[in-house]
């Protein structure tokens, strides 16, 4: 049962413990973002006693997240899709429109999930709704203890990992899951280095009301400065991720509501009719990060602690859920065979299993983004030809659609339909 220790220092079962009597768990998940909460729920669904440590869950995040069908299947397999499904809007079609002013433009292309015999490619949700449902599930799970605190350090020996917290006694466990975001303390404690890079772009992010229905179609305009993507939400609302130069994103962020609405209507070519802002605006500078290793110090890194890239193509949390699925399979197997869950062998296996997927997704997002930015004619030709080919050849169409959902070559067992 979840105990909220730091919120009220007089309650919770760990409260009587001194550091020398630290409580021990199978796993400690660090980070109360979506990746951390889903990791805790996945581990608990496989019988692992888990402590989840992080600051209060963000129940006001106005961003949205599109989860692809493989992620939906994973949430179903760990028993939580039924609690989440009503908050998601299905994405049945994906329309790509070349909005560049270049010499070579790709033809408009619409992909339909029904071509893959799926009801939807993916499902979009407001982060505040996602976090609310995950928080309730965590709180009601007998195998998860929630500690509202931040961590300062992780140390380890041959038998256990010890976590030093800011306001709570130390906690020990067999293995630590680092889902503590870009500035991960788990990663730093393990001495794992990162590769970091920046893009000359920023994303203006907000939600919109519109007067025409979206028919569950996600629309992406490819523009010279980056994509402009409107993703369906319930009723006549959609989320917008609009990638621009940092200067222009900041300029637009300072526009009055009516002026910004008029600009967005023009850029969207009125495909959803007239637009009204339906959330505060946020600007995210675009950057990327990969951890050189995804494990060490009895810790497994996942989510943005291990890899971060621009919000293009809805890949970030989907990739993180594949980290969670692989880690859950390895740890559940170790628990059931009474093997050490934090052994060097398990850590290396996790790192090896995740590398190719992380590199290929990071590269794909990077290439797609750079292909829009470049003025080089050969690159424009390839992009136009790629989309043209995709729109004409059924086999290529299906291949592209499948790979957009998840890598078919390395899908973790926990993400497959039970009868596969
Ligand atoms: C505008 C935008 C749109 C996006 N859209 C999509 C999409 O459509 N589909 C998709 O798949 N992905 C999308 N993403 C990516 C997705 O949002 C991220 O992958 C996801 O939020 C990462 O989750 P996370 O839990 O790894 O990290 P975070 O959300 O950053 O969570 C990290 C957690 O760790 C906690 N923490 C940090 N330090 C400590 C500490 N010392 N001790 C304890 N806890 C700590 C933080 O408080 C936080 O709770 C989008 C991203 C952006 C910016």
Question: What is the terminal-to-terminal distance?
Answer: 34 Å
Number of domains: 2
**What are the low-pLDDT stretches, counting only 5+ consecutive residues below 50?**
1-20
Radius of gyration, in Å, reads 22 Å
Mean pLDDT over all positions = 89
CATH architecture of the largest domain: 3-Layer(bba) Sandwich
Q: How many DSSP E strands? A: 20
**Distinct helical segment count:** 11
Helix content: 25-40%
The ligands found in this model are: flavin-adenine dinucleotide
Q: Which of globular, elongated, flat, extended, rod-shaped describes the shape?
A: globular
CATH first level of the largest domain: Alpha Beta
Name the beta content range: 25-35%
CATH topology of the largest domain: FAD/NAD(P)-binding domain
What is the CATH homologous superfamily assignment of the largest domain?
FAD/NAD(P)-binding domain
Category from helices, strands and their pairing? alpha+beta
Question: Oligomerization state of this entry?
Answer: single chain
Largest sheet: number of strands, sense, barrel closure: 9 strands, mixed
Structure overview:
With 420 residues, the protein is α+β, with helices and mostly antiparallel strands. The protein folds into 2 domains: 13-58 and 128-195 and 288-372, FAD/NAD(P)-binding domain (3-Layer(bba) Sandwich), CATH 3.50.50; 64-126 and 197-286, D-Amino Acid Oxidase, subunit A, domain 2 (D-Amino Acid Oxidase, Chain A, domain 2, 2-Layer Sandwich). It contains 11 helices and 20 strands. The strands form 3 sheets. Strands 5, 6, 12, 13, 14, 15, 16, 17 and 20 form a 9-stranded mixed beta sheet that branches. Strands 1, 2, 8, 9, 10, 11, 18 and 19 form an 8-stranded mixed beta sheet that branches. A hairpin with a 3-residue loop joins strand 14 and strand 15. Residues 1-20 have low confidence and may be disordered. Flavin-adenine dinucleotide is lined by residues 30-36, 53-55, 63, 65-66, 150-151, 179-181, 185, 203, 205, 241, 284, 303-304, 311, 314-318, 320. The site of flavin-adenine dinucleotide has 32 residues, from helix 1, strand 2, strand 3, strand 12 and helix 8.
